[in-house]
Amino acid sequence: MSDLAVAQRIADGALPGARVEPLLVSENATFRVRGGPRPAVLRVHRPGYQDDAAIESELAWIAALRGDTAVPVVEPLSGVLVDGPTGRRAVLFAELPGGPVPDAALDAAHFAALGEIAGAFHDHAETWPRPAGFMRFRWDLDDTIGARPRWGSWRAGLGVVEAHRRALAPAAERAARRIEAFGRTADRFGLIHGDLRAANLIARPGGGFTVIDFDDSGFGWHLFEFAAAASFVETDLRLPEWAAAWTAAYRHRRDLPDAHAALLPDFVLLRRLQLLGWLGTHGHALEADPAFADGTVEVAARYLAGRLL
Predict the structure, then answer these.
(1) Of 9, 47, 145, 305, which has the maximum CB count within 10 A?
(2) What confidence tier does 286 reach under pLDDT thresholds 50, 70, 90?
(3) What is the separation of C-alpha 205 from the centre of its chain, rounded to a whole number of angstroms?
């Protein structure tokens, strides 16, 4: 059954008489909802990625961020909605004015905004008393580029052949070794957004941004947030400038020792490999680029030469 049919049936159950219009298909399928009390967006979850407890936990953190911080965050309008015939899960969110920031428009100001937001989120997560039963997955080494990569193995990524694997393996091993040695203490590892990049910011008409899409939130390294911010633009020669802007803004909110910041290149490499695996299992994605594997080799070479950031 099509995502559209499922979305329409869920909308009918939640908002009788409402109609849905396709908006975007990426990890999940999203639909604009018309005919309800206010403009809304319905996120229909792909099967098997998040269970009900994980989705409710995501919504709990969003609600807490909305209540406890000044960061504008997407507003949920429902809990978990279930399509009876298929078992598909969905959540209804308020539609936001404005639009996303395209990669072509990225500049240091966007990375500064992302750094400020990341610092605010990590501060909140560190002290927030999570509700009983709170459950989100981890973004550990095994879950990204190791034995059980949640998005797929980079070794089987889009366009990857043996020459890519040979070129990338030394960088992957070095990054994994350094990140493992970095550790997981609370000053560097905790609840994170997990995909905090410009594509998940909605630029508001009056200025500033609203953060959306907490579907990948979970427990991971704080520095992973910068790597996520650099997703798909790791080969841009402005990356060192953007890293400086992100780091300075993050330090407005919380401590980031130089010894920690020194691992930013390792996390950029980690994320790039994770995305390579993701494209291997999501060839339909808007970001799919047949040259991505070649670009990843370029990123790895700069990383190993100490010239990535």
Answers:
(1) 145
(2) low
(3) 23
The Cα 294–Cα 291 span in angstroms is 5
User: Which pairs from 167-174 meet CB under 8 Å and 24+ separation?
Assistant: 167/297, 167/300, 167/301, 168/273, 168/296, 168/297, 168/300, 170/300, 170/304, 171/269, 171/300, 171/301, 171/303, 171/304, 172/145, 172/269, 172/273, 172/300, 174/266, 174/303, 174/304
d(CA 196, CA 200): 6
Quick one: tokens of 15? 């908002």
Contact between residue 3 and residue 25 where contact means Cβ atoms under 8 Å apart: yes
Phi-psi region of 260 (alpha: psi -120 to 50; beta: other; left: phi over 0): alpha
pTM of the complete model: 0.95
| 29 to 150, 226, 233: CA distances (angstroms) | 19, 26, 24
Q: Does the structure show a pLDDT above 80 at 284?
A: no
Helices (H) and strands (E) counted in the chain, each on its own, are 10, 10
Q: 64 exposed, middle or buried (CB, 10 Å; 0-12, 13-18, 19+)?
A: middle
- Tell how strand 89-94 and strand 40-44 pair up: antiparallel
